[in-house]
Design goal:
This protein is of the alpha+beta class. About 35% of the residues lie in helices and about 20% in strands. It has three domains: about 210 residues, Heat Shock Protein 90 (2-Layer Sandwich); about 130 residues, Ribosomal Protein S5, domain 2 (2-Layer Sandwich), CATH 3.30.230; about 90 residues, no CATH class. The structure holds adenosine-5'-triphosphate and magnesium ion.
Length: about 450
């Protein structure tokens, strides 16, 4: 008989591995928010602040909460079997997210929870204690201690709810208070834009959940800009992948940049980011997981940049899509890739059309001509020869002067500061104002030249 030896991981070193599985602040907080969404919360409050001179983060919801047994069991890493069949709207899978996400950022995780008609319960993982004792020792708080925690972090529950508290957050340790406040402020901005995008589907519609960040209500951000002028809806497709699971694909074409407001353009991250973020938007049970990129289906292109394809995947297909505990990446199964490849031809063509159409519009400008060479795949801008004023001028000149003028106009076309304009248009689109050019100033300058 072979010998069976118990080689359970050493808690002290295991915890160090577990806390480095690749979450960042945004994806970690989102994993906690997933739980609040699953718990049918109507309001979710995220607060990042300095408490007793140290950074602390509280994520509180008014969902169905946990009783004492559920709370204690939920504190265990791997408290549920990933193969369990879960409800359609349950965003959980591994029974580990809350712990792993928290340990990636904080050395102290406290969960306080309440269900209807019962007392508030709370428990804490303190990794300093785990390391000191080299044992998975959970702290279960008394009623009095729980009350103390609630007043320290300003937590009040209605009928039911849960609060997750992070303390001893590694990235914020060692800063003076003023600097810490500033860093927290910056992180809050980035976190808000992550959440309003990744949870936007939960913030819309009749059963919308209210999200508050440091007491400010967050608006959703739809990456397809569906209700804006110039938005085009493309084809959609739904197909079953296996028993009980179907995938939905929807094509969206964003409005051209010239039709966007500054706020929308900023939300999209500016012109550069619109190009970088074209591609697939994959939602797992309505929560955005992947935001952009074509995953080898096609190349990122300047002309296809307005195309975005929404892919809706149910959690029942987690295995096929290789969902991991962080839920920040997925693998697209081969069969789905084949379907997507057929489907995206259309949006890319449409996005190209939107651009080509703009190209023709610019050709209509009486002073400039846009040459689009389809075969060479190149575009050039040159001064138009058809301008009546130019014709009038040319007939008054002798042959040599006409050659000089043509030479000058050719140079003017070739030397158009295209890179400078491109860069300014992307970073400060509203700054360029050609109306600032004054005829009188130019005339004055030319007269001076003449006099010399
Ligand atoms: N805000 C909450 N409200 C109610 N129950 C919660 C809340 N947060 C966590 N729980 C309970 O704790 C359990 C463990 O959460 P955890 O995030 O660790 O795992 P999970 O959500 O089941 O799966 P995953 O690892 O995929 O996130 C949940 O399954 C749920 O029962
Ligand atoms: Mg979870």
């Amino acid at each position: 008989m072979p010998e069976h030896i118990d080689l359970s991981p050493n808690p002290k070193s295991h915890i160090k591995t577990l806390s480095r599985i690749g979450y960042n602040l945004d994806s970690a907080i989102s994993d906690i928010i997933d739980n609040s969404v699953t718990a049918e919360s109507k309001n979710i409050f995220v607060e990042m602040d300095v408490v007793d001179q140290k950074a602390a983060l509280v994520i509180k919801d008014d969902g169905y909460g946990m009783d004492e047994d559920t709370l204690i069991n939920s504190m265990r890493i791997g408290c549920k079997d990933p193969s369990d069949i879960r409800g359609e709207f349950d965003l959980g899978r591994f029974g580990s997210g809350m712990k792993m996400a928290s340990f990636s950022q904080a050395r102290k995780l406290t969960v306080i929870s309440k269900i209807e008609n019962f007392n508030i319960q709370s428990a804490t993982w303190d990794l300093d204690l785990v390391e000191r004792e080299n044992a998975w020792t959970l702290i279960k708080h008394t009623e009095q201690e729980t009350k103390g925690l609630c007043s320290k972090f300003n937590i009040e529950f209605g009928e039911s709810g849960t609060a997750v508290i992070w303390e001893n957050i590694s990235k914020y340790n060692g800063y003076p208070i003023a600097e810490l406040q500033a860093i927290l402020g910056q992180d809050l901005v980035s976190l808000k834009s992550y959440v309003r995008l990744h949870f936007h589907k939960f913030m819309e519609g009749k059963r919308a959940i209210n999200f508050y960040f440091n007491f400010q209500k967050l608006d959703h951000f739809d990456p397809f800009l569906r209700n804006r002028n110039g938005y085009q809806e493309g084809p959609s497709q739904k197909f079953r992948v296996k028993k009980g699971g179907s995938i939905e694909l929807r094509v969206h074409i964003l409005p051209h940049e010239s039709k966007l407001t500054k706020v929308d353009l900023d939300n999209l991250g500016g012109t550069d980011q619109i190009t970088a973020n074209q591609g697939l938007y994959v939602y797992r049970a309505n929560r955005l997981i992947i935001s952009g990129g074509w995953f080898g289906l096609t190349r990122l292109s300047q002309l296809g940049k307005l195309a975005r394809v929404e892919v809706n995947v149910p959690t029942s297909l987690d295995e096929e899509w290789s969902t991991d505990v962080k839920k920040s990446s997925l693998e697209i199964p081969h069969k789905v890739k084949v379907k997507l490849k057929q489907l995206i031809r259309e949006p890319i063509k449409r996005s190209q059309k939107t651009y080509r159409y703009r190209g023709r519009l610019e050709e209509a400008n009486a002073f400039w001509k846009v040459n689009e060479n389809e075969r060479e795949k190149s575009i050039s801008y040159e001064i138009s020869k058809d301008k009546t004023l130019l014709k009038k001028l040319i007939v008054t000149l002798d042959k040599d002067k006409v050659y000089d003028l043509i030479g000058y106009l050719t140079h003017l076309s070739v030397e158009i500061p295209i890179h400078h304009i491109y860069e300014k248009m992307s970073s400060e689109p509203n700054k360029i104002n050609q109306n600032d050019i004054s005829y009188d100033d130019l005339l004055k300058g030319f007269k001076e030249l003449w006099n010399k």
